[in-house]
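Sequence and structure are no longer studied apart. As an example, we show below a sequence and the tokens encoding its fold:
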Amino acid sequence: MFHNMKEDHHEQLEIHYFTPSAFEKAGAAWPIRLGANIAKPGYHIGPRITPYYYLIMVLEGEGTFIQGGQTYPLRKNDLYCLFPQVTHEYYTTEHALLRKIFFAFDGKYALSLLERVGLTPYQPHLRDGLTNAAIERMGQFFTLATDKVEPASDLLRLSIFHQIFDILARSNVPQDVLASSGSWLQRAKDYLEIHYADGITIESVADYVGIDRTHFSKSFSKAFGLSPMKYVQQLRMNEARLLMKQTDYKLAEIAQSVGYPDLFSFSKAFKKHVGVSPAQFRKE
């Protein structure tokens, strides 16, 4: 996996860049870059932000990760995620230097992939979330990226990318939850992803799957790492940011498109979720 390390002032780094095809960009999510690094003493990243999602896997060492005002200790086999436009910072412990593998990705349903693993903006760190099977699949990803004789197709790249999420999801979502309620929980999640902009309520979703509201909310939170309402807010904000980046729609039009009755309520929710107003986000 580590065959192309290059010396940097605070790390040894191997990184590969992908150019997503039109087919990849038409899908749920796609990889942008793949990397591995070994920290040197004094290794310290941030505070800074990223335009993409980064899923980072700790192979060895110890350190500290800070994001969203929360601090998390890093250990071997931990997972952590950098979320777009959120200030983050992480650094190594001097006596146990960090060794990591990672990939950056983007897409309309990038958040949904992370939630399947158990990572959210409210829970960006997962203790002992990494498995040997996921490490092995990441090794295949590196092999794919370094093959200059027969470059991988976009289909193969997407296949390995999604397989990694599948392995991590099966390892980290509580099996007792999935076994007892996986079917209706997935139906509820699918319903939210389709109708989040339609003014739905948690009661209406619970009725749709035939589950008591309180039990529904508790089970959903346990399975996916955040409440149904916060999940709806994430879907709305994700779509709003996409519309602001890729269209010239007025902010009031975007507010109604993602399920808010007026610009005021949308602006208030957006600033609370993202940290800046919609107008500032579009300007930046």
Q: What stands out?
A: The longest strand covers residues 30-39. The CA atoms of residues 83 and 271 lie 16 Å apart. Confidence is low (pLDDT under 50) at residues 177-181. The radius of gyration is 20 Å.
